[in-house]
Write a structure and sequence with these properties.
9 helices; 39% helix; globular; eight-stranded parallel barrel; 10 strands
Length: 277
């Protein structure tokens, strides 16, 4: 099982290159970054973690800019998003951004995606929240067309363009990790993704994922797909979570780093290494 970290990289915390070097030096496997373009002050949308939204949500760096910088100071670790709100991006522009980061990373980039939870954030981008999942999937399909074809063309409900030229192409096809735990998420993983990115912060939550992991693998095998992996978006460092993830056959665990400065984050990384054993 691989081990990595996920974080909200902010303007007041550790910088991206320092974090990326520290992760690689400690023989961990991945760094993933969260994304919010902004946070509306209205706070009407409920946050799953409680009533008060943490400061980090409104202070995140652009993950693609940050990951590009992190790619230039590392050689081995995977670099990705967990998750990018792709429906809030123009897919033609985002396809170029992802391909550029993947080129800088020599094929180490992974695109974790999700529809998001903040309805006001979506509305500020001109998006009807009721269409968020359908729009996300269409944006993914449009970007794949651009990455895979010299003359890309797409005609859908939300995205429509005649043949275009757009380079660079990715160094390798970026894996699409579909985030979420809803009742139809496995359908989306099998139809539109390369991997599943569920959340699980406690041993019980991870154990509860085990039957769905078995279902995913069974359905993937029936469809002739043997390469679907599962990356767990976990909470605080917990050896019991690691043990539960390994029993479930999860490919990789990402533990959430605090949004602090170097003096806070590096000891936390060392705690993770110790818990991993």
């Amino acid at each position: 099982m691989e081990h990595g970290v996920v974080t909200f990289l902010t303007d007041y915390g550790i910088d991206g290159p320092t974090l990326a070097r520290a992760v690689e030096e400690r023989d961990l496997d991945a760094v993933f970054l969260c994304e919010h373009t902004h946070i509306p002050t209205s706070r009407q949308s409920a946050w799953h973690g409680g009533a008060e939204l943490p400061r980090r949500y409104s202070h995140t760096l652009d993950p693609f800019v940050a990951l590009g910088a992190m790619a230039t100071v590392t050689e081995r670790i995977a670099l990705g998003t967990a998750v990018s709100l792709v429906l809030q991006h123009n897919p033609i522009g985002l396809a170029k951004t992802v391909a550029s980061v993947d080129r800088l990373a020599n094929g180490r980039f992974e695109l974790g995606v999700g529809p998001g939870w903040n309805r006001e954030e979506m509305a500020n981008h001109g998006i009807d929240p009721s269409t968020r999942t359908a729009r996300m999937l269409e944006h993914i399909a449009a970007m794949r067309e651009i990455w895979e074809n010299d003359e890309a063309e797409f005609h859908g409900r939300f995205v429509d363009f005649d043949p275009i030229w757009s380079w660079p192409k990715p160094a390798s096809a970026p894996p699409i990790l579909i985030g979420g735990e809803g009742p139809t998420v496995l359908d989306r993983v099998l139809e539109h993704g390369d991997a599943w990115l569920p959340r699980g912060s406690t041993p019980d939550e991870v154990e509860a994922l085990a039957p769905r992991l078995a279902e995913l693998r069974s359905r993937a095998g029936d469809a002739g797909r043997e390469d679907i992996t599962v990356t767990l978006f976990a909470g605080d460092v917990d050896k019991l979570v690691l043990e539960a993830a390994e029993r479930a056959g999860i490919h990789r665990v990402l533990f959430l780093l605090p949004d602090g400065d170097t003096d806070v984050v590096l000891p936390y990384l060392d705690q993770y290494v110790a818990a991993r054993g």
